[in-house]
From TrEMBL:
It comes from Streptomyces antimycoticus. PANTHER family: CELL SURFACE PROTEIN, OUTER MEMBRANE PROTEIN ASSEMBLY FACTOR BAMB. Gene3D superfamilies: YVTN repeat-like/Quinoprotein amine dehydrogenase. Residues 16-109, 126-239 form the Pyrrolo-quinoline quinone repeat domain. This is Pyrrolo-quinoline quinone repeat domain-containing protein. It holds the Pfam family PQQ_2. It comes from the Bacteria. InterPro entries: PQQ_b-propeller_rpt, PQQ_rpt_dom, Quinoprotein_ADH-like_sf, WD40/YVTN_repeat-like_dom_sf.
Length: 315
C-alpha cells in the first residue's frame, strides 16, 4: 500500500521502495527515486510536504538489529536530495511497528511507535517523537511518550506540534515546534484518534472526550479545540468515530465514519452539518483542494476492490 500527498500542482507517492512524483492534471511521472526498503512494509514509511521540498522517512534495522529511521528531503521540482538524517535508535527496547511523518515549511515531525512485549510504562515508553529543521534536517528536540497504542494522527501547524497519540491516561499533547516544550494536554480517547484536521487556530478530531483522568469515556463525537490552549470550542455529530480532514473548501471539516460509513461536511466554526452522504462504506479521504475531495470507499478488509470518489465540496 502506498502513501500519497500533494502540492498545488503535483502528487507525491511513496511505495515499492520508490518515491514518485506525478503531474496532478495528467498523471505523468515527472521524476522517481529509490528511498530504500522499509523493514515493516508500508507502516514503516512516511511522506510529507515541507514548503518546496518533499520529505520521506523509512524505518530500517541497524547492524545490531535495533530500529532506526532514515529521513530525507528532496526538492519537489527536481527530486534532488537536500539532506538526509539517520535518526538514532528510536527506542531502547522493542521493534518499531508504525512510523509517521508530518511537516510544515519549518519543522519535520517524525513519530515512531514500538512494541516491546510489555505494557507501556514510564520506564519503557512506546512512543518516540523527533522534530527536525525542515531546511537542514538538524534535530531540534526529541521526547518519549508513554502511549497506549500506535493509533493516532499528528500534525504541524505554525509554531505548534500536535501529537494525537493517547497516553495511558487518555491525554494527547501539543508542543512548541521549535523547543519541544509542552503547551497543553487534552483528554481524548483510550485508543487515540485516527487523524487530526488542523486549521490556523483550531484542531479537529473524532474521539470520545474524557472529562477527567481515569473517568469514563463520553459518547463518541467530533471535537474542535483551540490550537493555542487545547480548550474545547465545540462538540458535534454524536456517535461518529473516524477521520477528520481540513479545513477545506472555504471552511469545511470533512468527517468520515469508520464503523458505519458515511461522509459529513461540518462548518469549521460551529460544527453544524452542511451536507452529508450516508451510504458510503468505509470511506478514507486521500486529498482535497478548495472545491473537491478525493476518497476511496468500499472494498474488503485488505483494501482491495475499493472505489475512488471525487466529491464537489464547495462551488
Amino acid at each position: 500500500m502506498a502513501h500519497l500527498t500533494r502540492s498545488a500542482t503535483v502528487v507525491f507517492v511513496i511505495g515499492d521502495d520508490r518515491l514518485k512524483v506525478l503531474d496532478a492534471h495528467g498523471g505523468r511521472t515527472l521524476w522517481s527515486v529509490p528511498v530504500g526498503h522499509p523493514v515493516i512494509g508500508s507502516e514503516g514509511m512516511g511522506l510529507a510536504v515541507a514548503g518546496d521540498a518533499v520529505v520521506t522517512a523509512v524505518a530500517q534495522y541497524t547492524a545490531d538489529a535495533s530500529s532506526h529511521a532514515v529521513v530525507a528531503a528532496r526538492g519537489a521540482a527536481d527530486g534532488k536530495q537536500r539532506w538526509s538524517t539517520a535518526l538514532p535508535t528510536l527506542l531502547a527496547q522493542g521493534t518499531v511497528s508504525t512510523l509517521t511523518l508530518a511537516a510544515s515549511a519549518k519543522v519535520v515531525l517524525v513519530t515512531a511507535y514500538a512494541t516491546s512485549g510489555q505494557a507501556p510504562s514510564a520506564s519503557a515508553p512506546h512512543g518516540s517523537v523527533f522534530a527536525l529543521a525542515a531546511d537542514t534536517g538538524k534535530e531540534l528536540w526529541r521526547t518519549r511518550l508513554n502511549v497506549a497504542s500506535a493509533f493516532g494522527g499528528h500534525a504541524v501547524a505554525g509554531d505548534t506540534v500536535v501529537v494525537g497519540w493517547a497516553d495511558v491516561n487518555a491525554y494527547f499533547y501539543a508542543f512548541d515546534a521549535a523547543t519541544g516544550k509542552q503547551r497543553w494536554r487534552a483528554p481524548l480517547v483510550e485508543d487515540g484518534t485516527r487523524s487530526l484536521g488542523v486549521g490556523a487556530d483550531t484542531v479537529y478530531f473524532c474521539g470520545a472526550h474524557r472529562a477527567e483522568p481515569g473517568g469514563s469515556n463520553t459518547d463518541q463525537a467530533v471535537y474542535a479545540l483551540e490550537l493555542a490552549t487545547g480548550k474545547q470550542r465545540w462538540r458535534a455529530h454524536e456517535q461518529v468515530y473516524g477521520e477528520a480532514w481540513g479545513p477545506v473548501g472555504g471552511g469545511l471539516v470533512l468527517v468520515t465514519d469508520a464503523s458505519h460509513g458515511g461522509v459529513w461536511a461540518l462548518d469549521s466554526r460551529t460544527g453544524k452539518t452542511v451536507w452529508s452522504i450516508a451510504d458510503m462504506p468505509k470511506p478514507t479521504v486521500l486529498a482535497a483542494n478548495s472545491t473537491t475531495a478525493f476518497l476511496v470507499a468500499g472494498g474488503d478488509d485488505n483494501g482491495k476492490n475499493q472505489t475512488v470518489h471525487a466529491l464537489r465540496i464547495a462551488d
